[in-house]
Amino acid sequence: MARTLSTQTLKTGQKAPDFNLLGTDGKRYSLEDFKSKTVLIVFMCNHCPFVKARIGDLTKLQSSFSTDDLQIIGINSNDPSYEGEGYENMVKFSKEHDLNFPYIFDETQEIAKKYGAVCTPDPFLFNSDFVLVYHGRINDAVEPESIPTTEIMKHNISTILNNSTIEKDFDPSIGCSIKWKE
């Protein structure tokens, strides 16, 4: 487990890079498929203990809002040859964790590089125009075994839905490093 802090390449106010990627449901997804008031793109994977610890928080977060207000998109950019990764393992992970949001495969790792994602989970929150409004933590749990006490992302989503401005637009997330291809 290579504990890594996210860095800020894509800056607040910049547009989300588009993609056309295959989901675990067999459909291809691009940004134009999502019409919600906020879009949360989370770079994640199948094996990381940080992702496994927060995946229930993400499905709960999606359930807390209608898809008109929030759409979460999970993107796996890990090297598919890394143990526990790859499309088939993504399908299995999606079913095991009852994901209620699309989980899509960035096989070339091009999308992670465009966003500047470096760890899993690495969340990026966008408004309805796909402009970055927040990059950072889902909650205040910084270790896999930590119990969250503050729902940072939920608060930030509500702030955007209330037409207000997020005070701290970058709060580095912590997770495993993305497993890059050699």
Please explain how this structure is put together.
The protein has helices at 49-64, 87-96, 110-115, 152-161; strands at residues 3-5, 21-23, 28-29, 38-44, 70-76, 103-105, 119-120, 122-127, 132-136, 170-171, 174-177. By secondary structure, it is of the alpha/beta class. It has one domain: Glutaredoxin (3-Layer(aba) Sandwich), CATH 3.40.30. An eight-stranded mixed sheet has the order 3-2-6-5-4-8-9-10, covered by helices on one side.
Task: Tell me briefly what this model is.
The chain is of the alpha/beta class and 182 residues long. Helices cover 23% and strands 24% of the residues. It has an 8-stranded mixed beta sheet with strand order 3-2-6-5-4-8-9-10, with helices on one face.
Helix-strand makeup class: alpha/beta
Quaternary class: single chain
Q: How many strands, what sense, and barrel or not for the largest sheet?
A: 8 strands, mixed
What is the radius of gyration? 15 Å
Give the CATH level 1 class.
Answer: Alpha Beta
Number of strands: 11
Indicate the CATH architecture.
3-Layer(aba) Sandwich
CATH topology grouping = Glutaredoxin
The residue-averaged pLDDT reads 96
Tell me the CATH superfamily.
Glutaredoxin
**What share of residues is helical?**
10-25%
For the largest beta sheet, what order do the strands appear in spatially? 3-2-6-5-4-8-9-10
Overall domain count: 1
Instruction: Specify the number of helices.
Output: 4
